[in-house]
Design goal:
about 350 residues, about 55% helix, 16 helices, two-stranded antiparallel sheet, mainly alpha
Length: about 350
């Protein structure tokens, strides 16, 4: 299988200092090297998809990071077969010098370890050059979450307009999406993967397929069900009528109908959702789909929910991932204490 995002030159515009430090490439047959290395990369991505059942977004992220590393090798006149510990350390050192965040460096180091472990297991390389390379520890970033009062106020102020059918359809759709992201703590990819038929089978809960193909049941609030039903009845048909082809452009590749569609009648993308989130920024500042997922978990924890319940609802494989929300609540408690206690 060929992955379109593994070909073509890497865009160095956002990491100019990295490009400057890579220097001049040594004289060798770059085209032959590039083809050989990209074939190995494609095999690795196929393995992630078929054997490891990784999500498409995960595969694309791995491809992007590894393509960046291949550009580094090409500019040094090297190939995957010639990589050793010094090469990997030089690359990570380059990223550090370029002042990339610790989280980004840690992620790329982890991707390299996974890739070269695969290369060693498949006998592409005799030894794993990344096996004893230390992965930098990423600093924990505590997400900023709006309070219950501020978020509810922001959502309540979104009023579907009367008269303009198109604007009303977009507004109802956005509200339905926000309610699923916040009300059920869904990832944006999970919300966008809903089909009309799957939604029609839901009652008080929905079966979601998350990362790694793992299924879980998530509860649906009465309000989210009502607003999604209103969107299906009133908003979605208006948006669907705007498609320009006779064939249903609202279909996913398997032929099922996407629940959430954009202004052109096609399945919504992450970019569409980010655009929709701008509705909330006047009240809340910068908002992403993940902000609403974080808010769901934080507000549940503050309301007394057990951490294990939140872990199950969000689909976290590791409880440590869920525990970040305890830090948010502690920080908020400290601020309330400082603001309200006479001797704080």
């Amino acid at each position: 299988m060929s992955y379109p995002f593994t070909s073509g030159p890497h865009d160095w515009s956002h990491t100019k200092s990295e490009a400057q430090m890579l220097g001049q490439s040594k004289k060798r047959n770059a085209q032959t090297r590039s083809k050989s290395d990209l074939e190995i990369l494609d095999r690795f991505l196929d393995w992630l998809k078929i054997d490891r059942n990784r999500a498409e977004n995960t595969i694309e992220a791995y491809s992007r990071d590894l393509r960046h590393f291949l550009d580094f090798l090409q500019r040094r006149g090297e190939s995957i077969e010639g990589v050793d510990r010094k090469t990997i350390r030089a690359y990570l050192s380059l990223l550090d010098t370029a002042r990339l965040s610790k989280a980004t460096i840690a992620r790329r180091a982890y991707v390299l370890r996974s890739f070269f472990r695969y290369c060693a297991e498949k006998k592409i390389l005799d030894v794993d050059p990344a096996v004893i390379v230390e992965v930098p520890k990423a600093s924990k970033v505590i997400p900023k979450v709006p309070t219950v009062a501020r978020l509810e106020e922001a959502l309540d102020e979104i009023e579907p307009p009367l008269g303009d059918a198109y604007s009303r359809a977009i507004t109802i759709r956005d509200l339905a999406l926000f309610e699923l992201l916040y009300g059920s703590g869904l990832r944006v990819s999970e919300a966008l993967s809903f089909t009309v038929s799957a939604w029609q089978k839901t009652r008080e809960s929905a079966r979601i397929t998350g990362k790694g193909g793992k299924e879980r049941l998530v509860p649906l609030s009465d309000y989210s069900r009502r607003v999604v039903e209103a969107y299906i009845k009133e908003g979605r048909p208006v948006l669907l009528s705007r498609r320009k082809t006779t064939a249903s452009s609202a279909d996913f590749p398997d032929g099922t109908e996407a629940l959430f569609i954009n202004s052109k009648g096609k399945p919504m993308t992450r970019r569409d959702v980010l655009r929709a989130c701008r509705r909330l920024e006047a009240k809340l500042g910068k908002v992403t789909p993940h902000t609403l997922r974080h808010a769901c978990a934080t507000h549940m924890l503050e309301g007394g929910a057990d951490l294990r319940v939140i872990q199950e609802m969000l689909g976290h494989a590791n409880l440590q991932t869920t525990q970040v929300y305890t830090h948010i609540s502690v920080e908020r408690l400290r601020k309330v204490h400082q603001d309200t206690h006479p001797r704080a």
